[in-house]
Amino acid sequence: FPTGFISEKIWKPIGHCQPFILAGPAKSLKHIRTKFGFRTFHPYIDESYDDECNDMKRIGLIENEIEKFSNKTKSEKIEFLNNVKDICVYNQKLFISIGEESRK
Asked: How do residues 59-80 score in pLDDT, each as one tens digit?
């Protein structure tokens, strides 16, 4: 992960307890897992895009995941949200605790 900088755009869905696909440099997901301890959404989202170093290929893989989600039925989307709920809650709690620690 070249810069170690994560845009504020990822913190919003984490803080609001929402699942996400991180469209950033290769290894961004790995970075937020290893540096901060956040959980991501494999196997519910194919996160192999995070390993792709070619930017255009990575964007294509991200587009495929968005397309797969958009083609789900309403009941499949509800099932997805139920499956990832624990991950979202964990991430939100971790996000809040990191914020509280930084104020000490």
From this structure: 999 999 999 999 999 999 999 9
Q: Contact 52/28 with Cβ under 8 angstroms?
A: no
Residue at token pair 């997805």: 80
3-state secondary structure of 6: coil
- Reference 43, options 88, 80, 16; nearest CA is 80
Cβ–Cβ < 8 Å for 28, 22: yes
- DSSP letter (8 states) at residue 89: H
Q: Do residues 5 and 35 lie in contact, with contact meaning Cβ atoms separated by under 8 Å?
A: no
What is the CA 62 to chain-centroid distance, rounded?
11
Angle at 36 between CA 96 and CA 89, to 5 degrees: 45
Q: Give this prediction's pTM.
A: 0.89
Q: How many alpha carbons fall within 13 Å on the CB side of residue 94?
A: 17
37: left (phi over 0), alpha (psi -120 to 50) or beta: left
